[in-house]
Write a structure and sequence with these properties.
Distance between the termini: 37 Å
Keywords: Apoptosis, Cytoplasm, Membrane, Phagocytosis, Phosphoprotein, SH3-binding
GO molecular function, one term: SH3 domain binding
Organism: Sinocyclocheilus rhinocerous
Strand content: 5-15%
Largest sheet: 4 strands, mixed
Oligomer: single chain
Shape: globular
Subcellular location: Cytoplasm; Membrane
Main location: cytoplasm
Length: 714
């Protein structure tokens, strides 16, 4: 007979004694279990003891997390969190350096546990650590473990970052600014500065006054990728929190300090592979750099502004090798006619006043900036494109002006200019770190591609949108291989001619026949409900398997997790915190919290979620909003989720809506519906004449006589 579900068999250790095997009744208070264990070893004062996991975490067992105890777990009887916090609080103030070092090691290790952290913080432990740092008497390992403990304690989010003094910030900044500093101290100091900047606008101002980009750059020239990652993270944090008017100034400083070329040579092209965290920070830097273009992208051209009109005159001058005539040369009507003719050759929509073409935002003035850059830095290609098209028949000429404006808009969409960086993305492109004016160079390659594709398609003005669609596909396909340089990108585009795109499209369409006849459409409608029921069952089964969700914290490097799953009878949501990302499913009995499905009132998504209404740069980005959903229950209680990816978001919102009897409307449901419906249609429309379909499935083959052919990789 199996043991009751509330009974867990464990081993409990105590130093100097044989481990004790016992059964824990999860219904009994934890204090009663600890008392029973202490009595078994004749230990007085059981209230001063606690149970810990005897693994690498050493986390305390509490009433909140006791349901995580599994059969066969090894626990340890130890000093209670309050006692341990009191002891370490005293020991780290010891006059003996050896005792103090041991105490700080223990503190750094124990501080990862929120139960201990809460007790230590209650003793004003954070203030004690900051005073120790400010005193400047500790160095080497002493300082390293002090900062490690500080980072671990602050990462629990119990204490606000706004409480720290200028003296403490100055001290941390001084460790970053020193040329020769212990690696561990430098790493912790950079992590603290990043968290300060991201979590407080006031602290951003203070940190920005203490450190300069020039002092951070040397840390990128070393070989330690962790230090490089933290350094880029601090630069990104300063960039992200800087006021709008200071970002351009900061970008100029980064350019002067040659940040791009230093990252290219010491990080991207180093012998070490780039880890996920560094890839994320490079992606963030790429996004923030491109976002500097947003101001020009959203600035309309003033048709009456002479300085702006002079740029258009410069485009005309370079293309047709003419000097701007003085006002006295020829009649006004003659000059106006000549300008109109040239502006038509340049491909503007408004031949009389091309400035009007740049009043559309986006791309606004950014398109004109790109055109001028192309004309000045790739003059031969610019002149060739303009003259080539002006000598063609009217119906086949590729309008350079209109194309440049639409292409700039398209490139801004592809690179998501103006959007905040995603919290989970690692999608940086090495080629954008190979040139100081990478966006402009990117445009120059793409405008030449557009002209080439226009010729290959033998397009007319009516085909303009079709050409732009093909060009967009060429660019996005070329970007997927992550070219290491702009030349590689250009070579990839050479292979993606219009003919090649047609072949790719044809091969992708091979299995996507479009059935439009009436009987076929009627059959589709008849099949649709059973397919929708199949999708619904799949969603509910996935909810029963459960998903691990990440808690959003101010720092990305130490993730905290929680797990949620639906009971097999579809009546209860089980959820609870986890110490680490699980391998496989988490059993129901280890999830301590429950929410009856009958109590759920509604499911809200995106900006309507309570946890998305909070302010903060990390919570305002578009991608995080797209992954957020909340379950409303009782009167105003919410269970808040951030899905790990778009797929899980769709699975959970679909599943929850299905539980509430509502329609599943996610894009994944539409995609699954199309895929399954098309497969079912093809099966039903197969020509099965003279083919015998068996009544029963074929038998499973017998097992082989031996398994000698199996190779054990371990």
């Amino acid at each position: 007979m199996p043991p009751p579900a509330d009974i867990v068999k464990v081993a409990i250790e105590w130093p100097g004694a044989f481990p004790k095997l016992m059964e824990i009744d999860q219904k009994k208070p934890l204090s009663a279990i600890i008392k029973e264990v202490c009595e078994g070893w004749n230990l007085p004062n059981p209230e001063t003891f606690a149970l810990q996991n005897a693994d690498s975490t050493n986390f305390y067992i509490t009433e909140k997390n006791r349901n995580n105890i599994k059969n066969g777990s090894i626990l340890r009887l130890t000093t209670s969190a309050a006692q341990m916090a009191q002891q370490l609080h005293e020991r780290i103030q010891s006059s003996s350096m050896d005792m103090k070092l041991d105490a700080l090691k223990d503190l750094a290790n124990s501080s990862r546990d929120i139960t201990f952290a809460q007790e230590f913080i209650n003793l004003d432990g954070i203030s004690l650590l900051t005073q120790m740092v400010e005193s400047g008497t500790d160095f080497g390992d002493l300082l390293s473990f002090t900062l490690t403990a500080f980072v671990e304690l602050m990462d629990h989010g119990i204490v606000s970052w706004d409480t720290f003094s200028v003296a403490f910030i100055k001290k941390i900044a001084s460790y970053v600014c020193k040329s020769a500093m212990d690696t561990a101290v430098l790493q912790r100091s950079l992590a603290i500065l990043e968290s300060m900047v991201l979590n407080s606008q006031d602290l951003y101002q203070k940190v920005a006054q203490e450190i300069t980009i020039g002092q951070l750059i040397p840390h990128l020239q070393g070989t330690d990728q962790d230090i490089q990652t933290y350094t880029v993270a601090v630069i990104n944090a300063l960039f992200l929190k800087a006021p709008e008017e200071k970002r351009q100034e900061m970008a100029h400083i980064l350019a002067q300090k040659q940040l791009r070329s230093i990252i290219l040579s010491n990080v991207i092209r180093s012998n070490k592979p780039i880890n996920d965290e560094m890839a994320h920070q490079l992606y963030v830097l790429q996004v923030l750099t491109f976002n500097l273009l947003e101001d020009r992208m959203m600035t309309k051209m003033d048709p009456q502004d002479q300085a702006q009109r002079d740029i258009i005159f410069e485009l005309r001058r370079i293309a047709f090798d003419v000097e701007c005539e003085s006002n006295n040369s020829g009649s006004f009507e003659k000059r106006k006619s000549m300008y109109t003719r040239d502006y038509k050759k340049l491909g503007f929509i408004n031949h009389v006043n091309p400035a009007v073409d740049f009043t559309q935002i986006p791309p606004g003035m950014l398109a004109l900036d790109n055109m001028l850059y192309f004309a000045r830095h790739h003059q031969d290609a610019y002149i060739r494109i303009v003259l080539e098209n002006s000598s063609r028949e009217d119906k086949h000429e590729c309008p350079f002006g209109r194309s440049s404006i639409e292409l700039t808009k398209m490139l801004c969409e592809i690179l998501k200019v103006g959007e905040l960086p995603s919290e989970n993305c690692h999608d940086f492109h090495p080629m954008f770190f190979t040139h100081d004016r990478s966006f402009e160079e990117f445009f120059c390659i793409c405008i030449q591609l557009l002209n080439k594709t226009w010729k290959e398609m033998r397009a007319t003005s009516e085909d303009f949108n079709k050409v732009m669609q093909v060009v967009k596909e060429q660019i996005t396909r070329a970007l997927t291989i992550k070219p290491n340089s702009l030349d590689q990108f250009k070579s990839r585009l050479q292979n993606l001619s219009y003919t090649e795109i047609l072949k790719l499209r044809q091969s992708e369409r091979m299995n996507q026949e479009d059935f439009q006849s009436r009987p076929i459409l009627e059959l589709r409608e008849k099949i649709q409900p059973e397919i929708m029921e199949l999708i619904k069952q799949q969603r509910l089964n996935r909810l029963c398997e459960g998903t691990c969700f990440r808690k959003i914290s101010s720092r990305r490097r130490q993730d905290k997790f929680w797990y949620c799953r639906l009971s097999p009878n579809h009546k209860v949501l089980h959820y609870g915190d986890l110490e680490e990302s699980p391998q496989g499913e988490v059993p129901h009995d280890s999830l301590q919290d429950k929410l009856p499905v009958a109590d759920i009132k509604a499911v809200v998504t995106g900006k309507d979620c309570p946890h998305m209404k909070e302010k903060g740069a990390l919570k305002q980005n578009k991608e995080l909003l797209e992954l957020a959903f909340s379950v409303l229950y009782e009167s105003d209680e919410y269970l808040n989720f951030i899905a790990p990816d778009k797929h899980e978001y769709c699975v959970w919102t679909d599943g929850l809506n299905a539980l509430l009897g509502k329609e599943m409307t996610s894009e994944f449901t539409r995609s699954d519906m199309d895929t399954l419906l098309n497969m079912e249609m093809k099966l039903r429309l197969l020509d099965l004449e003279n083919i015998q379909i068996p009544e029963v499935p074929p038998p499973i083959p017998k097992e082989p006589s031996n398994y000698d052919f199996v190779y054990d990789c371990n």
